Inverse folding.
């Protein structure tokens, strides 16, 4: 064996544990350095910029919180809080390659406060999430982001099939795009297009406690639709052969049964049926 190699081998045997510890420490420091790309000061500045473009005062508390999986808006006492996981944000920034991805996430959480969704934090309303996505796209266009930069976060972090709290990626991307395009139209001082529903709807769907209105279209999609965006499909409506139930509405793993009287029911964890809404035939105006 070469003398230098022999010397290195002896050093390795004598100091193996120390060298491995040093390597682990360097890896950890590198990972920490990559994750520390958005601290609270930067996040607060981003929130301030978003709110300023809304014409409001930036009266939000912005916090780093490792216990938060992604980002969340909530009320604590009288404070309106936006908390985010710095590791999650760093991962989004690295994957998307644009700082606008982090701004879009914060804008989405700001919208939850502005639209009053944090007053009922346990509610699961897919239309609320899409409305916040639409706001995010609208604000980012006004701040100077491109369409691609505005949907960058959803492109890398959105779930194709949806999650417990959020609609599928394609629906969220569509909502962001609609908001961005409306901001562009307003900036160009274009006239409002005529309000025309181009798709044929079969049912109007309403859930108790949810201010959003949903529809079932001719393709048996469950869609969200409001005065500012085109329909966005996020679930399905399936016709049943059951004597008791006529349809099943599903999205993100949730299942709702519609009886022959057009009442919507949801089965609780204890197996009990609970009335949660109703559907009615869509009548063209």
């Amino acid at each position: 064996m070469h003398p230098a190699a022999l010397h290195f081998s002896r050093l390795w045997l004598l100091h193996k544990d120390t060298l491995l510890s040093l390597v682990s420490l360097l890896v950890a420091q590198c990972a920490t350095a990559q994750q520390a790309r958005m601290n609270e000061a930067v996040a607060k500045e981003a929130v301030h910029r978003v709110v300023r473009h809304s014409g409001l005062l930036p009266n939000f508390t912005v916090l780093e919180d490792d216990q938060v999986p992604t980002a969340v808006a909530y009320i604590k006492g009288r404070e309106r809080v936006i908390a985010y996981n710095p590791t999650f944000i760093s991962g989004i920034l690295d994957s998307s390659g644009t700082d606008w991805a982090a701004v879009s996430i914060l804008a989405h959480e700001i919208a939850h406060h502005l639209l009053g969704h944090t007053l009922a934090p346990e509610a699961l309303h897919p239309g609320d999430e899409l409305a916040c996505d639409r706001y995010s796209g609208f604000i980012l266009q006004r701040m100077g982001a491109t369409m691609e930069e505005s949907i960058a976060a959803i492109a890398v972090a959105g779930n194709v099939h949806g999650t417990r709290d959020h609609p599928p990626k394609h629906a969220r991307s569509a909502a962001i795009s609609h908001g961005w395009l409306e901001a562009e139209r307003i900036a160009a001082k274009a006239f409002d297009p005529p309000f025309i529903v181009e798709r044929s709807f079969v049912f109007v769907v309403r859930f108790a406690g949810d201010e959003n209105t949903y529809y079932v279209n001719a393709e048996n999609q469950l869609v969200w639709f409001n005065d500012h965006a085109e329909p966005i499909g996020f679930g399905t409506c399936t016709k049943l052969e059951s004597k008791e139930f006529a349809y099943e509405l599903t999205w993100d793993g949730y299942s709702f049964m519609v009886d022959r009287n057009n009442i919507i029911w949801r089965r609780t964890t204890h197996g009990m049926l609970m009335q949660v809404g109703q559907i009615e035939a869509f009548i063209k105006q």
Notes: Confidence is low (pLDDT under 50) at residues 4-8, 18-36. The two ends are 91 Å apart (CA to CA).
